[in-house]
Amino acid sequence: MEDSIDFDIDNDGIDNWEDVLDCDGDGNEERLIDLDGDGIVDVDAARDHDNDCINDADDPDDDNDNILDVDEIDGEFGTYRYDHDNDGFWDSYDTDDDNDGLSDWFEQNDGWDSTGQFDHDNDGIPDYTDDDDDGDGIPDVDENDFDTI
């Protein structure tokens, strides 16, 4: 079977997508962390947006774009604050930017665009090429410099 259609490339009985979540091969997903030992997964502590096995809380570059988070958060780079699916989570922290039920990691690793099909203002120009995604007359580059989503 071709690897592109094989859900378990290494034939270990664990689907490929689950293998990726276990960075150190110990059989436990690194995203499932319970720091306080209360038996409840600490979702915020376990979030790893760029799947590099460094939790976002400890990762200086959560989205792995070679721009430090501190620079993005300060508004130096506007794309950090975008929320494509308007769910209240910036894309840099959202694991499903388009809210279609498929994780961004899955879409991006299969060559799909997790945000390209959006056209928030329904002007016929996809958001990824539209300079004013919401059609309010203020260019995205200006809006993204503020602490709004």
Please outline the helices and strands.
Layout: H1 16-21, H2 43-46, H3 69-73, H4 104-109, H5 140-143
Structure description:
With 149 residues, the protein is mostly helical. The chain has a domain at 60-149. It is 17% helix and 0% strand. It has five helices and no strands. The chain has helices at residues 16-21, 43-46, 69-73, 104-109, 140-143. The longest helix has 6 residues, at 16-21. Residues 74-80 have low confidence and may be disordered.
Features:
single chain, 149 residues, mainly alpha, 5 helices, 17% helix
* Overall radius of gyration: 18 Å
What is the N-to-C order of secondary-structure elements (H for helix, E for strand)? Answer: HHHHH
Q: Show unreliable segments.
A: 74-80
Strand content: under 5%
> What share of the residues lie within helices?
10-25%
Mean pLDDT: 68
Global morphology: globular
Structural class: mainly alpha
Helix count equals 5
Number of strands: 0
Q: How does the major sheet shape up?
A: none
N→C terminal distance: 44 Å
Provide a concise account of the structure shown.
This protein is an all-alpha fold.
